[in-house]
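Give me the fold.
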Amino acid sequence: MLNQSLQQKLLQKLSPQQILLMKLLQIPSMALEERIKQEIEENPVLEIEDDYNKESEESDQRIDENNEDSKNDNDVDINDYLEDDEVPSYRLNAGNASADDSHKEIPFASATGFQEALLTQLALKDFSPQLNVIGSTIIGNLDEAGYLQREISAMVDDLAFTQGITTTEEEVLHVLKSIQEFEPPGIAARNLQECLTLQLQRIEPSLSVNLGILILQKCFDEFTKKHYDKIQKRTHCTEEELRNAVNEILKLNPKPGNAYSENITTNHYVIPDFIIENIDGKLELTLNQRNMPELRLSRTYIDMLESYSDSRNKKEQSNSQRDAVVFIKQKIDSARWFIDAIKQRQTTLYTTMKAIMDYQRNYFLEGDETLLKPMILKDIAEKLGLDISTISRVANSKYVQTPYGTFLLKSFFSESIQNDQGEEISTREIKKILSDCIEAEEKNKPLTDEELTLILKDKGYPIARRTVAKYREQLNIPVARLRKTI
């Protein structure tokens, strides 16, 4: 049986402006610059400010005087697009450029990839046309690290179907062994064990090198797990001999394919969104707006609306002209929403970072991580009267430059635990102490998680062993056995 009923629901819907603001809040400065460029390309009304012309304000005032009778029931008030109470509201005053600023170009070096270098070496070999094709196929199948991950049998099939070459696994292995003699050492290996062995075999023989080759060939599993006592028993070597052999192995390159890019400096620049300076004990916060262009509405489109508003008889306007006006109005709305969202983004970023700076004032003054207070998103949200999701978007992928380095903003947020005196302390403080303990440990007798737990307990931090293990993993520190050296 069908029934009709009336229900009343309260739903919260986000306006397009709110959605735009949330998206802009989430992206960092570098991505924002690209987002602004994209918006300028998509919206012809929006353009980058060069030299602001005051004539725009004067023309707006002139339009006000002529527009009293330019309305009807079906028209949108042109004044809404040509006047502003602010001076003017569509401008974004960044003021981030100066004639004294230095503009430097960073040169980028280019280099030959390892595959091109291998093909050059292959061309120098006295190979038959068939062996050359096999060699090129092998080189083409090497991954970025320089390893051959394909099975030899699969390559034999590929050569038969794609190149029309009938070959055998023995012939492919013969060419592979020749390529493994190319530079850099260790190239075209099929696994790490073979890669390291090939490199050691290229070094002048010695007791340490020979023992290293033996360890890689006979005790590779024990070597990766650092079971040095088992290696000693199997190879019948002394601790000193084992130490020297391991040192030889540790000098090798596990990724020979990267050898050709080692001489090129790859700079990964972090553009901070905030800058905090300590000036005579006073913290000063600024937003990094160096790559933020000033925006304005296009004078050309404003003039088009002026022309429309000056026309007393709207009936004389053609349909195409009316469509053009509607298009301009839509684009002006979109441009204003975007610039207002940019301005609101800057304001929200500044107030949020200011609240974080005040909350962690002692740390930003001293730079001592143990001074960091427990802080969660809710603390800052309640302080500013904002939603937690807004604070989360601000903290996401944003960096702050401090006198002690540049840090990811979300790294300053941490949970709290209680010490033996009942005081709330940051988990960041625990991690710093844990890291210091591991750094100061004896490398031949690294501290286990149980020992670290006891040390922290003696320092007044009663936490469980599993919590120590969790913090250690978050710090990307391996277990004691894998930290051991001889």
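Residues 261 and 396 are 32 Å apart (CA to CA).
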